[in-house]
Amino acid sequence: MIHCLRTTHSLNVSKHMTKPTCRLCKKEKDLIKKSHIMSEFLHKDLFDENHKLISFEPIELLKTNPRISRPSSGSYEGGLLCKECDNEVIGKYETYASKLLNGKLSKKEKIRCNFAKSIDGINLLELSDLNYSSLKLFLLSLLWRAHISSRDEYRDVALGPYADKIGKALLDENPGADNDIIITITKLDPTAGFSTFIGQPIRHKVEQTTQYSIIINGYIVVYYLKENRLSKRINHQKLTEDGTLTIMEIPKDKVSPFVMKYVGVAK
Asked: Which residue in 148, 138, 133 sits closest to 35, CA to CA?
């Protein structure tokens, strides 16, 4: 019979509970439960009197009485960003864009607007004295947030190596040169009925290059990840480092066919 000396001891097991990683700063932090993908202020005119978002499928645009749903808020997702990255990093770009769109810029921030016409009679809005860095980084943040989202409406956005490039730009407050991810904005005639419409981001392929577009409240924002023939053609309309931007307005009779093609309802 084997006799063993019985001893007792306490076993100290250190359980290292790792925190999730923020998609922007890449640090292990507590993540917030509600990060808006498309900034909530962009939905301002899309809410009804009960603060319910007016939402509909693209095919409904063709109907006389479109079927409308009313979710309680804009598109958001939890577990993506830490509080600092959401509220402070991206938040400061949202603040500028919100003041710009709502006409609440300070005297020091005021921009200049000039209304003109192209040689073929197209209305043009020429903006100057824009904060190039803040506006471009805000617009880039929308595309980047769509990329990191798992929501179905953003499934078309897959930035590949550009995701880290844009993320670093957001953290470093460095928008890059105006020919490094070119951004243009085009306006839809406000009487055409699409001023309260936010479309899901669409990916386009042109000359082996990728570009994205998003319709936001009557404006089409286009991101050219690399220069192509289209970006060269409208080079004079892009957001530039000197704070200028020319916005072309699509005439009313051309808006509906364009939007139908954009959302895939028509070819």
From this structure: 148
DSSP single-letter state for residue 88 = I
How far is residue 184's CA from residue 239's CA, in Å, rounded to a whole number?
A: 6
DSSP E strands in the chain: the ranges are: 35-36, 76-77, 112-117, 123-128, 182-188, 202-206, 209-216, 219-224, 245-250
174: Cβ–Cβ under 8 A, 6 or more apart, which residues? 133, 168
Q: Can you say whether residue 181 is alpha, beta or left, with left for phi > 0 and alpha for psi between -120 and 50 degrees?
A: left
Q: Cβ-count burial of 205 within 10 angstroms (0-12 exposed, 13-18 middle, 19+ buried)?
A: exposed
158 with 203: CB under 8 angstroms?
yes
User: Which tokens go with 196?
Assistant: 């309260």
The pTM score is 0.84
Q: pLDDT tens digits, residue range 100-155?
A: 988 899 999 999 999 999 888 899 999 999 999 999 999 999 999 999 999 988 99
The reported pLDDT for the residue numbered 227 is 85
Which stretches within 149-226 are classed as H helix?
Answer: 161-172
Q: What is the DSSP letter of 29?
A: -
